[in-house]
Design goal:
Helix content: 25-40%
Oligomer: single chain
Number of strands: 10
Distance between the termini: 22 Å
Shape: globular
Length: about 260
């Protein structure tokens, strides 16, 4: 058996957020050592509010507990083809939950948003966003795939992540870094998303999944053969030990896959 993802379960969101903070700062500091920046991709859903809980609490002191947003480059793991102030925008969600609440002393990250000129042409929207990735990850030399320091993802009740949906042809996309989708089974239909190879190529990949509404899909992903072919299962398979799941006890009730005790 190959290497396995890491599954962490916490009694409540507060303790989850505390450990998530430690994990994100470890990834941040590793990025700083690698290239002086922290390149991170973020999803929507409930993730931004959990992220805010983790990152905006006061530092416990010491260099191991410092968030330095000035060196962060934030990309979106997926985005909806809507204006930036629209209720469905992942940017708006992150802005409302996290970005607008960052205290001045922590600095402001460099956030890469979609070019709203191309909302009516999702292929062009995806191409433009891929160009932004290329400028960041391949400015000096050509690379086959970008390597994010960390991707922070969610898990839908159907096992989707980013805007990669079960049994969708996009799961077979192997060339594009950013792909358009015009038939998302979850509205809005038009979106762009990082491709599966980009997700699994990251240095670290973290899922945050909480609440009893997630227990059936997590049991499927971790304990069944068919769960391996769901998008989240494919990330587990491709990312292996680079993948960590941050869950609460109600989300993993009945899941047989072994939990890890600490980071």
């Amino acid at each position: 058996m190959g290497k396995q993802p890491n599954l962490y379960a916490f009694d409540d969101i507060t303790s989850l957020a505390s450990t998530l903070r430690t994990y994100v700062i470890q990834c941040q500091n590793a990025g700083f050592e690698r290239h002086g920046l922290f390149k991170v991709a973020v999803s929507g859903g409930s993730l931004p509010s959990t992220l805010a809980q983790a990152l905006l609490k006061p530092s416990q002191g010491g260099s191991e507990d410092v968030v330095d947003f000035t060196q962060w480059e934030i990309f979106f793991a997926d985005e909806r083809a809507v204006p930036l102030d629209h209720a469905d925008s992942n940017y708006k969600l992150l802005k409302d939950e996290l970005l607008d609440k960052i205290p001045d002393e922590l600095g402001q990250p460099n956030v890469h948003i979609i070019d709203v000129k191309y909302l009516d042409d999702v292929q062009e929207l995806a191409d433009q966003y891929q160009d932004a990735l290329m400028q960041s990850f391949a400015a000096k030399d050509s690379v086959k795939l970008p390597i994010f320091d960390l991707l922070l993802l969610g898990c839908g009740p159907d096992g989707h992540t980013c805007s990669l949906f079960p049994n969708h042809e996009l799961l077979r996309e192997s060339d594009a870094w950013v792909a358009p989708i015009e038939d998302s089974p979850k509205p809005p239909a038009k979106r762009i998303t990082l491709s599966l190879p980009v997700v699994t190529h990251g240095n670290k990949i973290a899922f945050v999944a909480t609440g009893a509404g997630k227990k059936d899909i997590l049991k499927q992903i971790f304990d069944t053969e068919e769960g391996r072919s769901l998008p989240c299962g494919l990330v587990n398979e491709g990312g292996a030990e680079k993948v960590s799941w941050f869950t609460d006890s109600s989300a993993v009730e009945g899941v047989g896959f072994p939990r890890r005790g600490s980071l």
